[in-house]
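User:
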Amino acid sequence: MERLTVLYNDQCPVCSFEIEHYRALCVKRGIDLGFEKISEKGPMLQSAGLSVTDAKKRLHVRTVDGQVKVGVDAFLALWAQMPIYRALGRLVAIPGIYHLAVVVYNHVLAPLLFWWDKRRLQCEESACR
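Assistant: Predicted structure:
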């Protein structure tokens, strides 16, 4: 692997918005990161042994050395590559803040976002309004 690759849920409006922000920043600053859509079932999804459902539950990145990082650790690896986010990454990596961020992300934000996206897709399929 020669670059960090982000695996993201391209069908989730919130996820796509955030990742498109990162992608635009990378293009603007000449940062070479990879972005793989879950819907394309590409090499990162397969090599990490993730189901589409599991991949949608948390942010995943594959680092340059081939490690797959998940959740807050994935954000920290991503932010470390982006000058504008490095300071945020250093702040979140401070032990007390890191543990709080992990708890909030794993038990509130990620499950809520996964539930919302799943519900949104179910409504689209059944035309509920």
